[in-house]
């Protein structure tokens, strides 16, 4: 038990807030560049860097441009990037074969980045949505998202990414049994060092809206993702999912979205002590950027405060589109 505080005036808590030096000395949580994983978008073509309308300051890049971005991120000290593909409707099929094509945009980008910028860790996204004609994370049969056949495809996708040189595999699909199947597949293929950062507690959230624009899925998605992503009313279920994923072989776990689910981050960290990450998703980013663009908030200050909140909630790191901007403020 902590000692009870003596009453005023013996205790003046403002004493500890009196100057920048004392505030620095007594600050409990800190934010550093080491805390960031930067999500990026790769697309077809060459020499392309196009801004995503609903995510000002975020770009879709062709592989050559993405390599440059990875180099800048490494120079800023950002430890990891996470690659998502933008796929046009013509790149999507019912059998989702593009997902495990060694030559898809993501796998080409992984190889190019690992060659040019070997020190930055490369994370991937594993789910079928960006290759699926109907935008779902799993195969659709008779209107249902089927689990086990999807898991087989996710393992193929995982192995193609590991083969390309990915360091961290990020399953975001929310199918049951995928972590165990992926871990078994990786071990059997000799990829013992490849890590899995599981999107374990991923909610069916409206905060993903701008991301679906970014990857070209907005028009494609039929229905919603509520039969596989979590209900926002649940919290104990998050602990069951994390416990299961760690048992099946996840090295790190994630809560997603971030800011509206900080209570879940704290519970997860306290319960398991595993490396815990939060994804500050596209809608969270867009809200801050749009309010800042209108002059309603100070964008930089709100950005830094929002990122610190994740540290306070117990997170070891944050997937955030703000990574380069925040890095520039942290290390001017
Ligand atoms: C795909 C995936 C999504 C995000 C990351 N991976 C969207 C979804 O589940 O519909 C969202 C990221 C963001 O909003 O920034 N499985």
UniProtKB/TrEMBL annotation:
The keyword Lyase belongs to this UniProt entry's keyword annotation: yes
CDD domains in the cross-refs: ALAD_PBGS_aspartate_rich (cd04823)
Organism the protein comes from: Roseobacter denitrificans (strain ATCC 33942 / OCh 114)
EC number: 4.2.1.24
Catalytic activity: 2 5-aminolevulinate = porphobilinogen + 2 H2O + H(+)
Pathway connected to this protein: Porphyrin-containing compound metabolism; protoporphyrin-IX biosynthesis; coproporphyrinogen-III from 5-aminolevulinate: step 1/4
Lyase listed as a keyword: yes
InterPro entries per record: ALAD, ALAD_AS, Aldolase_TIM
Keywords assigned by UniProt, alphabetized: Heme biosynthesis, Lyase, Porphyrin biosynthesis
GO cellular component terms attached to this protein's record: cytosol
Enzyme class: lyase
Domain of life the protein comes from: Bacteria
Gene3D superfamilies from the UniProt entry: Aldolase class I
UniProt-recorded name of the protein: Delta-aminolevulinic acid dehydratase
Active site residues of this protein: 202, 256
GO biological process: protoporphyrinogen IX biosynthetic process
Family statement drawn from the similarity comment of this UniProt entry: Belongs to the ALAD family.
SUPFAM superfamilies assigned: Aldolase
Assembly information from the UniProt record: Homooctamer.
A GO MF label: zinc ion binding
